[in-house]
Design goal:
alpha+beta; 6 helices; signal; Bact_OM_lipoprot/Surf_antigen; Gly_zipper_2TM_dom; membrane
Length: 194
């Protein structure tokens, strides 16, 4: 091992480099810039290695140090320097839609019986039998559609933009009382006002 590899190994062992240690006190963009500058410097230092295996190890170590420094830089918000809350965000939109209901056997049977009774009132002989069957089929279809309408419900979809940049959508069966701009946080598999 030469002095370059030993230097990078020492930085890895402590878990900090100068830009990493100061990133918490600086805006994230400044911390990221410092980390990138340090990484460029380390890559140049690694290029001086004579052996390919040592050069590759030096580059891997430099990349690890850079990655840690970037993670630290991202842990602070550029706007006000506070730590980013991964479960906190802001509502970006609320949409209300009507979710179609489901028809079932009850609607089909009730509609079919009603249709058959009405169809039986029409005509006579073979025509009455055809009208009864047609009435039953039409009534079953109509009964299914009526049941779908009766079981339809409103659904509220709330879109959230998290402080860490992620986005998510949550659905509610009742009005959550949220509007765009509300600050929210995760609560179980849902969100609540923050």
């Amino acid at each position: 091992m030469n002095k370059h590899t030993i230097l990078l190994a020492a930085m890895l062992a402590t878990g900090f480099i100068s830009s990493h240690a100061s990133a918490a006190a600086q805006p994230a963009s400044q911390g990221a810039q410092d980390a990138a500058a340090r990484y460029d410097s380390d890559k140049k230092m690694c290029a001086d290695e004579r052996e390919a295996s040592l050069r590759m190890q030096c580059l891997r170590d430099a990349k690890t140090v850079f990655t840690k420094a970037m993670e630290s830089a991202k842990a602070t918000s550029p706007a006000n320097g506070h730590a980013v809350c991964a479960t906190c965000g802001k509502v970006t939109s609320v949409h209300v839609t009507e979710q179609a209901g489901k028809g079932g056997a009850l609607g089909m049977v009730a509609g079919g019986v009603a249709g058959a009774l009405l169809g039986h009132q029409v005509g006579g002989g073979t025509g009455r039998d055809v009208a009864t069957v047609a009435g039953a089929a039409g009534g079953a279809y109509a009964g299914n559609k009526v049941e779908e309408k009766m079981t339809a419900k409103k659904v509220w979809t709330v879109a959230v933009q998290y402080e860490n940049g992620h986005q998510a959508k949550f659905t509610f069966d009742k009005d959550p009382g949220m509007v765009a701009g509300d600050k929210v946080k995760n609560s179980g598999h849902s969100i609540v006002r923050n």
